[in-house]
Design goal:
Elements lengths: L8 E2 L4 H11 L6 E6 L10 H10 L2 E8 L4 E8 L8 H12 L5 H13 L6 H4 L5 H9 L1 H9 L2 H12 L4 H16 L10
Parallel strand pairs: 1-2
Antiparallel strand pairs: 2-4, 3-4
Helix pairs in contact: 1-2, 6-7, 6-9, 7-9, 8-9
């Protein structure tokens, strides 16, 4: 059982209700499971995009979903960690939200912190598909790995690059580069496919 299993659930019927929950709890709750109806269920619910946009306004972010039953899914939302990377799509959402005056002080503080500590740009290279030199050299040294890596879908390459670039220690990064090459040589995606 993970610590997130103990988080409360909320099932807002609208975007406004979700925003109200965040306004009341964003500074005190460690996270929450947002329960929403699947499209075919007919249950009153907000969309994924609406849920994420409101969370961003308060410095929160979505994580992994879990199926509840045939009609409902729950999605974990937590306060954003200070050094977590910011995706291009979320930065674009934030631009629109800021222009509309929707960002709250907690959301603005999360952005300022990310820009100060480098987290704001940390995913830019991966999202652009830029292969770092150490990984490029290792892939060039193993022709099969290089060929398979180049054939992976852009979304799979992005996920692998994010994983490699997200390493905090040089030793961890070296292990991730080696794992990427080893798996790619087998036609598999590191941190993606299971052996």
């Amino acid at each position: 059982m993970s610590r997130t299993d103990a988080f409360a659930q909320t099932q807002p019927a609208s975007r406004a209700a979700w925003r109200q929950w965040l306004a009341e709890h964003h500074a005190s709750a460690p996270g929450v499971w947002l329960v929403y109806g699947k499209k075919a269920s007919g249950l009153p619910s907000l969309s994924y995009a609406e849920a994420v946009e409101e969370a961003l306004c308060f410095g929160w972010i979505d994580s992994h979903p879990r199926k509840l039953d045939a009609e409902r899914t729950q999605l974990l939302f937590t306060p954003r960690k200070p050094r977590s990377g910011w995706s291009k799509v979320n930065k674009e959402r934030l631009e629109r939200l800021e222009a509309a005056g929707q960002l709250m002080p907690a959301g603005l503080a999360a952005i300022a912190r990310a820009k100060q500590n480098g987290a704001w740009e940390s995913l830019d290279a991966a999202e652009a598909g830029a292969v770092p030199e150490d990984l490029a050299d290792a892939l060039a040294a193993d022709k099969a790995a290089g060929r398979h890596f180049a054939a992976f879908a852009p979304s799979a390459r992005k996920q692998i690059l994010t994983w490699v670039l997200g390493a905090k220690q040089p030793e961890t990064r070296a292990r991730r580069v080696a794992e990427t090459v080893r798996m790619a040589a087998l036609g598999k995606r590191a941190n993606y496919d299971r052996e």
